[in-house]
Amino acid sequence: MQNRAYTGRTLALEIGMALLALLFLSPFYFLFVNAVKTFGEIMTNSASWPTVFQWENFSRAWSLTRFPLVFSNSLIITVCSVILVGLISAMAAYRMVRYDSRFNRIFFLILIASMVVPFQSIMMPLLRVVNELGLTNTRSGLVMTYLGLGAPMAVFLFHGFVKSIPLEIEEAATVDGCNRISVFFRIVLPMLKPMLMTVIVLNCLWVWNDYLLPSLILQSPGLRTIPLATFSFFGEYSKQWDLALPMLVLGILPIIIFFLFLQRYIVEGIAAGSVKG
Question: 239 pairs with which residues across the strands?
Answer without folding.
Answer: 234
